[in-house]
Structures are given as C-alpha cells and as structure tokens.
Amino acid sequence: MKILVCISKTPDTTAKIAFTENNTKFATDGVQWIINPYDEWYALVKAIELKEKDPSTVIHLITVGGADAEPIIRKALALGGDEAIRVNTDSSDSFTIASQIAAVAKEGGYDLVFTGKETIDYNGSAIGGMVAELLDLPYVSLATKFELNGTTATINREIEGGEEVAEAGLPLVISCQKGMAEQRIPNMKGIMGARTKPLKVVEPVQVEALTKIVSFELPPAKAGVKLVPADQPEELVRLLHEEAKLF
Amino acid sequence: MSVLVYIDQADGHIKKSSFEAASYAAKVAGQTGTTAEAIVLGKVSDDLTSLGRYGISKVHHVADDQLNTMDSKLYTNAIVQAVESTGAEIVVLSHNVNGKAIAPRLSARLKAGMVPGAVSLPDTSAGFVVKKGVFSGKAFANISLQTSKKIISLTPNAFTPVQQEGTAEVVPFNATIVAPAVKVTATNKVKGEVPLSEAELVISGGRGLKGPENWGMIEELAHLLGAATACSRAVADAHWRPHHEHVGQTGGSIAPNLYFAVGISGAIQHLAGVNRSKVIVVINKDPEAPFFKAADYGIVGDAFEVMPKIIDAVKKLKGV
Ligand SMILES: Cc1cc2nc3c(=O)[nH]c(=O)nc-3n(C[C@H](O)[C@H](O)[C@H](O)COP(=O)(O)OP(=O)(O)OC[C@H]3O[C@@H](n4cnc5c(N)ncnc54)[C@H](O)[C@@H]3O)c2cc1C
Ligand SMILES: Nc1ncnc2c1ncn2[C@@H]1O[C@H](COP(=O)(O)O)[C@@H](O)[C@H]1O
Fold first, then answer.
1. For this protein, what is any one GO molecular function term (chain A) (predicted)?
2. The predicted structure's pLDDT at residue B190
3. Total structural domains in chain B?
4. Is it the case that residue B1 has pLDDT exceeding 90?
C-alpha cells in the first residue's frame, strides 16, 4: 500500500502575529516554523501506525513550498516516512497548492492521501477536498479514527454534536484531526535516518490561481476586562443579563 | 445569474448555520442585483417554504434517498447540476462540518475561487473581496476572488440572520445521482446536548477544576442557560472530558456569543480557538492568568466558591 501525507509549514503556535508592507505580508522576523500540528500529530502518525501494522506500506511525504520548507519536511521524515517530495513553488492559493499535490498523487498511484484538518495559519480546510475532486476520489473530512481491513476503510468523522462512522473502499482522501493518533516525539535513530532519506524536488505544474490575499488585519483591541469582586458573583450574572444581554 | 445557497440538514432538520447562510446569500444577491435560490439534498421534515423568511425565492429539492447521508462527491455532483441549471455565479455554504467537505470540491470542480470561513459580506467596491479569519482567530485576511464563479463558505455564528416576510417556492430538482462511495454505517450523537459548533453560549472548564468529578457545576450552568460545554486540551488529554469538547488551536474553533471559561489559564493555543467569541468571561483564582487579557468580564476567585453562587443567581433570574 502507498500513502501520501501532505505536510505544510506553519508558524509556531506561539508566534507573534504581525504584518508588514502595508499589511500585505506576514512578518516572519523571529518566527519559528513548525510542521502544521494536524499534519504531524494526526496525518503523519496515522500513516506511520498503518505502516507498523503492515510493513510493506510505503509512505511518501509531500510539501508544496520553497527551499525554506526543507527543514520542516526533514523533521517530518525523522518521525517516519520513506521519502519526501517538495514541489518547488510558493503560493497562498489553495487551488494552486491542491493542483500540485493532485499532480504528484496521480503520478504516484497512492491508495491513501492524508492531509491535516486545516493549516493553523490559513485555516482553509480546503486542500483535501480539492485534491479529492481533482483526482475524482471519495473524500472524508475531519476524520477522528481510521481503520483498514484489507481494502475497506472504516472512518469516524466529526459531525455536529457527535460522530459518524462510514465505510469506503480505497483509494481515498482523508483529512485528519484529533483522535486519529497520538503525538510522537522523533527519536535519535529517526533523526539520523532522516538525513539520508530521499528528498525529491519537482517543478510545479502550471495552474492559474483562483484567489489572492489582498491584505491582512488584526482584530480590534479589546476594551479591557471588567472585574467583578469574588464575593459578588451575582453581579456578574446581572451584567451578563442586563449589559451584555446574553440571556 | 442567481446566488445559490446549499442548505445543510441533519436528520431532516435544517441546521441553524444554514439559516445564516441563506440570509447571507440573500444579502449577497441584493448586493449583486439578483435573487437567492437554495438547494436542499435528501429527505427533510422541515417546511422548506419557510426559507422565504430568510430571503430565499426558490428552493430546489433533490429528495433522493441516497442523499440522506453526506457523501462529498455525491453532494458536489448534485450541487454542480443545480449551479448549471440555475446559472448561479455565487454559491454560499456554511463552513460547518459538511461545508468543509463540499465547498473545496465545488471550488476545484467549477474552477471557482473560494473563501473558506468568511466572516463578512463581500466588498464589491473594487473586485470581489471577502474577509476570513486566519492564524486561528488571531487575524483576518481579505481574499480577492478572481474568477467569475465564486464559492463562499460562511463561518457559523459570524452573521446574524435577518428574518422577513415571505415564502419560498419549492420545486423538485432531478439531479443524476450515482451510488455513494462513502457509506455511513452509524451515527453516534450525544442526546439532548447542544452541538458545540452551533452553540451561542458555551461554558468551558480547564485543569483548574481538578478532576472530572467536579464538572457538575459546568454542566449545571450550561443546562440552565441552554449552553454547550467545552474544555481545554489539557482536560481532554487527561480524559476528563471527551475529545470533541476540546477547543483551541488543535481542537474546535468556535465563535459563540458567550465563552465562559472556568479554571482555564488562557494559553495562546487555547485562545486561538475561542478568541472570536463575542463576550468572554473568565473565572480564575490567579489574577495573572493570561486569559484575563482577552476577557470582557472576569472574577479573580476560586471556582469552587464562585460557581455555586453564579448558578444560584442564574436560577433566581430564570425563576427555577
Ligand atoms: C502545539 C500546541 C497546541 C496546543 N493546542 C491547544 C488547544 O487546542 N487547546 C488548548 O486548550 N490547549 C492547547 N495547547 C496546550 C496549552 O498550551 C495549555 O497547556 C492548555 O491550554 C492548558 O490547559 P488549562 O488552562 O486547562 O490548564 P492549566 O494551564 O493548568 O491552567 C489551569 C488554570 O486554572 C486556574 N485554577 C486552578 N485552580 C483554580 C480554582 N480553584 N479556581 C479557579 N481557577 C483555578 C489556574 O490559575 C490556571 O490558570 C497546545 C499546546 C501546544 C504546544
Ligand atoms: N503547501 C502545502 N504543502 C503540502 N500540503 C499542504 C500545504 N498546504 C496545506 N496542505 C495540507 O492541506 C491541509 C489543509 O490545509 P488548508 O486547506 O490550508 O487548511 C493541511 O493540513 C496539509 O495537510
């Protein structure tokens, strides 16, 4: 079985969010970059678990991005995976990114394509569905559990107020979130091994972007907290009722 | 040239976030000088003419039983057929669990630019620009859609539906449907609970509550107010509460009218999932807890002393 895991590079969860060039660019000064947590903790670790069950499984990682994405994909290789592919183009347009992934996926003939639920910077939840459509494959989003029985997958996915269990045959595209797997820490052997795993750089296919980010803005500053003394909690209830009119 | 809104349903009932999407679609139609029509898939028990109250003129209903559960491919195919038959240029969906599966497929199929998680009406003064949340609630981006067809998936609870007089005309729509590739075999729903993603009021607890046995006061307050319950990641990781209650950067992202946080420190990753809430209330015994910086109201105090009094005051207010 062949699995393709989509890996994106995102700012660290504690990164200060600021913009430059007249609010058109994210200020990257001093920002630490990490593997998007959903891709690392859930998509990649799930793929590794499937390989642990069936050692004949081959895991490829893909990232669409410039050379600055290589430390991230190496970090992902240290967790697991057999080889990595970097599509050499930088874009913020989901369709452009998805088209690159779909082109590589089509070529590679994968049984499973895993993405994270969303990137923590763009928050699109978009790439997985687009890749599935471009490949004309079924897509299960927001998966919290995934089990494979031969070529039939049982997938739990989030719905409002609960979960839905579904069955589907391979090939499939899945977006992964909490529940799928548990976070892992790469070990020394993994880190050493990652240095020699193949990292292929491929040139992008030509596609027209459908969207463009024109500008960023920060939310308006909060007015500041109104503190109620601890011995008068009923005053808080009054404020929420009469001032904020919440109930 | 109309605006088409996809109306999402569960167990035959239209979801609240779809009424928001319908009303939003009607507003967009007004902006672009056209009408808003809707597409509904699968069996419904709600009265679809009532979508007229949200500004929808016509409802296309595909009552095929194969659409009673969601398969993103089937749903996309049906919606694409409706887009073709209505000549819609703009498709609106809710950015809820199903919208997140369908909208990107539609975008790729129709080569239509998409805004996932819109929080405002389009700005049509120069092109077609829609605002969305980015960096997990810490900022917004203005996205320009550069294609003639456009997809907007609207963040739940970001747009207040406007009700008016009116009834929608409901017409059957014959879409070609093939058998689903994804077969739903079971649905596990917590009965009687308000779904977190749709809740207007949310009561949430953190590690400050010491253990799962102390969640009674969170649940009681939530019950009194008709609120949903949530928790921090630390709490879900400790298995004090189920996974689906975990909010934050790596959990659910919510934007309720009230987020009421008890014994949660307010780590930046937690805030990322809740900072779009309209009003944030923080109960924490540590005056230095970072959450107070993001809060609108707060009490510096021990949750075990404060919460019973809050519950009593709410009971008095509600007359129970
Ligand atoms: C990559 C990454 C992603 C993450 N994603 C998330 C996420 O999605 N969601 C999330 O929540 N966290 C996330 N975290 C974890 C986050 O950093 C915090 O560790 C977590 O939110 C802490 O949970 P907590 O506030 O419940 O617990 P604590 O930090 O232990 O805080 C407990 C609070 O309760 C207060 N308290 C104690 N006793 C009482 C009392 N009797 N009465 C009142 N108050 C009391 C304390 O003063 C303290 O402020 C993430 C971390 C990382 C590194
Ligand atoms: N540049 C990229 N390269 C590879 N995979 C990506 C890239 N961007 C996003 N993805 C994948 O798509 C998922 C959803 O991203 P998004 O649609 O941006 O929220 C992520 O969790 C990744 O798995």
1. electron transfer activity
2. 76
3. 2
4. no
Going from the first residue of chain A to its last (247 residues), give the mean pLDDT of each consecutive group of 10, the final group possibly shorter.
98 96 96 97 97 97 97 97 97 97 97 98 98 98 96 95 94 95 91 95 98 96 93 97 95
Predicted pLDDT at B195: 84
Q: For ligand 2, atom 9, which residue shows the shortest CA distance? A: A8
Number of Cβ atoms within 10 Å of the Cβ of A6: 29
In a domain, B185, yes or no: no
Whether B191 shows a pLDDT value over 80: the answer reads no
DSSP 8-state code for residue B165:
S
Task: Give the residue from B121, B145, B71 showing the smallest Cα distance to A173.
Answer: B71
ipTM: 0.95
- Specify whether B96 is located in the same domain as B203: no
Examine the domain organization and report whether B11 and B120 are in the same domain: yes
Q: Which positions in chain B touch A13 (Cβ < 8 Å)?
A: 249, 268-269, 272
Q: Which CATH number do you get for residue B248?
A: 3.40.50.1220
Which CATH number goes with the domain that contains B95?
A: 3.40.50.620
- Distances from the Cα of B102 to the Cαs of A185, B97, B313, in angstroms? 34, 9, 44
B192: pLDDT strictly greater than 80: no
Q: Is residue B113 part of a domain?
A: yes
Position B320 pLDDT exceeds 90? no
Q: How far is CA B154 from the centre of its chain?
A: 8
Say yes or no: A236 contacts chain B, CB-CB below 8 A. Answer: yes
Whether the predicted model's global pTM rises above the 0.90 cut? yes
pLDDT tens track for A31-57: 999 999 999 999 999 999 999 999 999
Same domain, B151 and B21: yes
Domain that holds residue B302: 196-318
**Do residue B162 and residue B215 come from a single domain?**
no
- Please choose, from the candidates A126, A125, A120, the residue with its C-alpha nearest in 3D space to the C-alpha of residue A11: A120
Tell me, what DSSP letter sits at residue A39?
A: I
Distances (CA, A) of B300 to A51, B169, B269, B281, B295: 50, 55, 22, 11, 12
Query: Is B264 marked as a binding-site residue?
Result: yes
Query: Whole-angstrom Cα distance, residue A155 to residue A163?
Result: 10
- State the pLDDT at residue B243: 84
* Minimal CA separation from B160 to chain A, in Å: 14
Flag whether B219 is in a domain: yes
Residue B178 belongs to some domain of the structure? no
Tell which residue, A143, A137, A180, A132, has the closest CA to residue A165: A143
Nearest to B140 among A41, A125, A217 (CB): A217
- The reply to whether B219 and B292 lie within a common domain is yes
pLDDT tens column, B2-55: 899 999 999 999 999 999 999 999 999 999 999 999 999 999 999 999 999 999
B275 and B227 inside one domain: yes
- Give me the CATH code for the A2-219 domain, please: 3.40.50.620
In single-letter form, the type of residue at position B113 comes to G
Beta bridge partners of B261: B204, B282
